[in-house]
Specification:
The chain is α/β, with parallel strands linked by helices and 325 residues long. The protein has helices spanning 10-21, 33-42, 64-68, 83-87, 113-121, 134-138, 152-162, 175-197, 202-222, 233-244, 249-258, 263-268, 275-289, 295-304, 310-318; strands at residues 2-6, 25-29, 58-61, 73-76, 97-100, 125-129, 143-148, 167-172. The protein has two domains: 2-173, Rossmann fold; 183-318, N-(1-d-carboxylethyl)-l-norvaline Dehydrogenase, domain 2 (Orthogonal Bundle), CATH 1.10.1040.10. The chain starts with a strand and ends in a 7-residue tail after the last helix.
């Protein structure tokens, strides 16, 4: 197989490395010439994966048509809120297996990323999600993930293309649950980061993670997801990694807010997209449309979009009426 990865951030570059290490010929498309040159000639992406030696077999270009030429597998490593716009600029090869790495819910439409891809391209995508912190995978630390597609054979095709000694993919046919787990965990990680930035301890963080999983599961079930997905890698696995690791952009963004930065100040300090910041409002809108209560998500939206302080939202969450778990 031949693969093209559209997007040269930390996760796109890392996924390209995984593909090459698994024996799949891969070209990385980068928006900026200096990034493409650094990957192709220096075998490093110093902006997003400094110090990580990339395989010589990973080529890179700013020419989208050249990257896509002859590709059997196209990996979409693009930010969720610009995915639709970016898809319109590429002429994707007919019959190629599309793979979505984006984790979010589109603003305005409240569509999942696979729904956006299907709407624009007419094709179904295989979704990748799990506890996949790019820097750790790039360092070849053992990692598991989920590759989900309604058609199991399509998921198995990607599974074969990315299995390495350090990267272990599991197949799943629950695309809805896999995507909801990947999108909502970013918002819960923001909440954990805010709490940590405020100096709150492990009891608080464990409570946010646990109740955040409950919110995620409620929304997933309302959309027809398999409840078991949320007990697996794409659910609690991804949630724990993103909420606890300093490598998590969403957790780190939340910490800056908890320490007193404004959203604008925190954004200026964040090199790559913190997906939860952009998607929290659309996730809340999706939940509201389906009658699902998501108090932690609502609280994060109040901070990110309405200018409330972390202290105000903490008081609001703790003042909610008590009820059975």
């Amino acid at each position: 197989m031949r693969a093209a990865v559209l997007g040269s951030g930390s996760w796109g570059t890392t996924f390209g490395k995984v593909l090459v290490d698994a024996g799949t010929e891969t070209t990385l498309w980068a928006r900026r010439p200096e990034v493409a040159r650094a990957v192709a000639e220096g075998h490093e992406n110093p902006d997003y994966l400094p110090g990580v030696m990339l395989p010589a077999g990973l080529s890179a270009t700013v020419d989208g048509a050249a990257a896509l030429d002859g590709a059997d597998l196209v990996v979409l490593a693009l930010p969720s809120q610009t995915l639709r716009e970016n898809l319109g600029r590429f002429d994707l090869p007919a019959g190629a297996l599309l793979v979505s790495l984006a984790k979010g819910i589109e603003l305005g439409t409240t569509k999942r990323m696979s729904e956006v891809i299907r709407e624009v391209t007419g094709s179904d995508a295989v979704v990748v999600s799990g506890p996949n912190l790019a820097q750790e995978i790039a360092a070849e630390q053992p990692t598991a993930t989920v590759v989900a597609a309604a058609d199991h054979d399509r998921a198995a095709l990607l599974q074969a293309a990315v299995t390495t000694r350090y990267f272990r993919p599991y197949t799943n046919v629950d695309v809805v649950g896999t995507e909801i787990g990947g999108a909502v965990k970013n918002v819960i990680a923001l909440a954990c980061g805010i709490a940590a930035g405020m100096g709150l301890g492990d009891n608080t963080l464990a409570s946010i993670v646990t109740r955040g999983l409950a919110e995620t599961t409620r929304l997933g079930l309302a959309l027809g997801a398999d409840p078991m997905t949320f007990a697996g890698l794409a659910g609690v696995g991804d949630l724990v990694a993103t909420c606890s690791s300093p490598l998590s952009r969403n957790r780190s963004f939340g910490e800056r807010i908890g320490r007193g930065m404004t959203v604008g100040e925190a954004t200026a300090r964040t090199a790559q997209t913190a997906e939860g910041v952009r998607s929290c409002a659309s996730i809340l809108a999706l939940a509201t449309a389906h009658g699902v209560e998501m108090p932690i998500t609502h609280a994060v939206v109040q901070v990110v979009d309405a200018g409330m302080t972390p202290q105000e939202i903490a008081a609001g969450l703790m003042g909610r009426g008590v009820r059975p778990e």
